[in-house]
Predict the structure.
Amino acid sequence: MSTRISRSNRETMVRKVTNYVRNLASRRSSGVVTADDVQAYLTRQGISARQIRTRLSFVNSVLRAPMFESTGTVYSTRPEAKGRAISAWTLA
């Protein structure tokens, strides 16, 4: 069973995730954030891990915004990702 998120709720969540990741990047000495950080935030906000497309949509909406730029790759720490390489991002 899939739960749809309304457009206004999605926009609100994108803003919240963006603010969280931007603040997280500025607090880290490396300034690097990854999709793992977005995934962890979504889990805390109650977005089910089974809502894969929804979660990927949030990751892409946030990290592909002009305020972030890719700086290479790191290995995911999430068990679900099985250690595959993911992009690392910093504030532009």
